[in-house]
Specification:
By secondary structure, the protein is α/β, with parallel strands linked by helices. It has nine helices and five strands; from the N terminus they run βαβαααβαβαααβα. α2 crosses α3 and α4 runs parallel beside α5.
């Protein structure tokens, strides 16, 4: 049976991590594109600051083409034994096209939150590449938009707005995943 691959996109802090957690709880495979960039940052011996991770992200795309990070994820997606695989962190239409070429059962889900909401979440999260102030946050947003993230969000077949409580997002993600897997299976089996 062909894998159902669901690309998850959204600006930093929109709630993609919640999607991943819920998908894991539901038994989906998970591939995180940002982990590829963070691993490469570490391999290059660079401190994983927001600026450095962003720089490595851009370098990977300059060196290997605009779909380089997605290309690095394809073997991981193929290797998973799960029928449904979530790919977190789609940032360009080139990546969407690359994944569609490998996985015909590809869907794209966008998570959206306001800049203020996202900044507050990231500031509280304090991951190594999270912004420490509004300026760094804005620079990261601009870098993400520069590589095409806005176009990916705009082209998503489904969008969930995440401005309420985490439980609301969790419930919407569960509904989405149940619907996609139900329809994906019925399309494939006919």
């Amino acid at each position: 049976m062909a894998k159902i691959v669901i690309g998850v996109t959204g600006m930093p802090g929109a709630g993609k991590g919640v999607v991943i957690r819920v998908a894991q709880e539901m038994g989906c495979g998970i591939v995180v594109m940002g982990n590829e960039v963070r691993e490469e940052t570490e391999l290059r011996g660079v401190e994983p600051s927001p600026e450095n991770v962003g720089k490595v992200m851009l370098e990977l795309r300059q060196e290997g083409g605009p779909a380089a990070v997605a290309e690095r994820c394809v073997p991981k997606i193929q290797k998973t034994q799960k029928e449904v695989v979530i790919v977190d962190g789609i940032r360009s239409l080139f990546e969407v096209d690359k994944l569609k070429n490998y996985f015909p059962q590809f869907r794209l889900l966008a998570i959206h939150s306001s800049p203020e909401t996202r900044f507050n979440r990231l500031f509280k999260r304090k991951r190594g590449d999270d912004p420490v102030n509004w300026e760094t946050f804005s620079e990261r947003d601009q870098r993400e938009l520069h590589i095409g993230l806005g176009n990916v969000i705009a082209s998503a077949g489904c969008m969930i707005v995440n401005e309420k409580k985490k439980k609301n997002l969790e419930d919407e993600v569960r509904r989405f995943l149940k619907d996609v897997t139900k329809h994906g299976r019925s399309r494939h089996s006919s």
